[in-house]
Every structure is written in structure tokens, then in C-alpha cells.
Amino acid sequence: MNPIQEAVSRGLSQAKDAKVTDISIDIETLGKRPGAPIVAIGLAAFSRATGEVYPVMYHTIDLQSSIDYSTGVDPSTLEWWLQQAPEAVAQTFNDKSNRWNLIESIAQLNDVFQYLGNPKPWGNGATFDIGLLEAVIDLTGMNIPWHHRDVRDVRTVVDLGRDLLGFNPKFEMPFEGTKHNALADAEHQAKYTVAIIRRLAPSQTITGLLKQERQDREDAQAPTAN
User: Fold this and answer.
1) Is 215 inside a domain boundary?
2) Closest Cα to residue 47, out of 9, 19, 8, 17?
3) Is 200 inside a domain boundary?
4) Which of 26, 178, 182 is nearest to 98 (CA)?
5) Which of 32, 40, 148, 171 could cross-link with 28 by S-S, CB 3.0 to 4.6 Å?
């Protein structure tokens, strides 16, 4: 197991113990529209109650399987990748130590969400990361591991932090790792999202709401009497 997967395995266990209710999702693609090939997936779970962030999944995707389950490569996105830092390109396209077939990666994505109790997915924008990921999952015929009502938008939270609080940690918070590495992007996104949430609401309020949310979810999943 390489260092990244060791960190992910440890983060997954810690996230489970922390009873996280949210996951930040970042994908890297070869296009901007639904059906674009997905070349990397990164997930970082976070706790609104404590502000802790946990890496829980990182896969680069075998390019052939990525293209097989897509509507084709967008040339402008390919040109964009050619202009990015060599480290980002190498980590996304040349790193075989974290490479997965797309079908196996989607199966693991489902496993992570189930293991963590079906947390809410957060994407940067209402339609990009999660929308493109859902489109590709549909092309594979596999299960989307979240309910559409649970999808959350990071950009809305960023707007609220900036407009209501004058607080914009997306750019003020130091970025750790390589930009356009899916896991580094997902972790950074989780960090500034939870920082804004915790500024918007006192921790006691968040803890109470999350406790009620967990209870409501458990009640909904409990078997009903005949």
C-alpha cells in the first residue's frame, strides 16, 4: 500500500469513528459537460461539528475505461491540461500506483458512502463535479450512492461566507498539495467549506442539528411494524 492509500485507509477509519455527515467530492475530467471522461476522483469527509477533514478515497482512472464510459474527449479541456503544472499532469495521468478501472472505482465509491452511513455529497457548483460524476455512473449502469435531495453546493456556501461575513477562506486558506490533484482539491474544498459553516452557525447549534439529522435518518431506515 502506497503512502496516499495508507492515508486514505487511516482517514476512512477516522471518518467512520467521527460519524461524519458530509463528503467533499472533486473530479478531474477530459471535458466540461455530462458524459465527459473522468480521469481522477478524490473524496474528503468532514465533520461540521469539529471542523476535522479526512481523506477517504483517491483514484486515478485507467484512461481507456474512462473513455469507454463517456461521450468523448473535449479538445479544449485536453489543451487546458497541457497548460497545467507538470506535477498535476503526472499525478493524474502517469501515477499507476493509484490507478483503478472506472467500474471498480465506482464500486468503491459506493462502498465508501455505505461504510460512512450515506453522508451528503458536496460539489463545487450545483452541476459540475457531482453532475458529471452522476452522468458517468449512469453510463456504467451502476448505482449512484446518494439521494438527489442530499446533494450540496460549495459555491453557495462560499457566497454566503463572503457576502454575510466578509470571510473567504477558499483563497485565504493555504492550499496543501498539488492543485488539480483530485484528493488535494477535495481536501481543500472540505476545509474552506467547513470553516465557513462553522462561522455561520455556533458549534452547539451544528451539533444539535446533526444529532437530530442522524436520528431522523435512523428513524427513516428502521423497519416499520405491520
Assistant:
1) no
2) 19
3) yes
4) 182
5) 40
Residue 70 in any domain: the answer is yes
Give the pLDDT of residue 211: 64
The CATH number of residue 80's host domain is: 3.30.420.10
Alpha carbon 197 to its chain centroid, in Å, reads 17
- How many angstroms separate the CA atoms of 149 and 168, rounded? 26
Stated pTM of the model: 0.90
- No. of H helices and E strands in the chain? 10, 6
Task: Read off the C-alpha cell for 226.
Answer: 405491520
pLDDT digits (tens, 9 = 90+) for 122-136: 999 989 999 999 999
Domain count, the chain: 1
CA dihedral of residues 188, 190, 193, 195 (deg, nearest 10): -80
In this prediction, residue 201 has a pLDDT band, given cuts at 50, 70 and 90, of confident
226 within a domain of the structure (yes/no): no
Range of the domain at 72: 3-208
Give phi and psi for 34, each to the nearest 5: -55, 135
At 30-78, the pLDDT tens digits run 999 999 999 999 999 999 889 999 999 999 999 999 999 999 999 999 9
What is the identity of the amino acid at 75? Answer: P
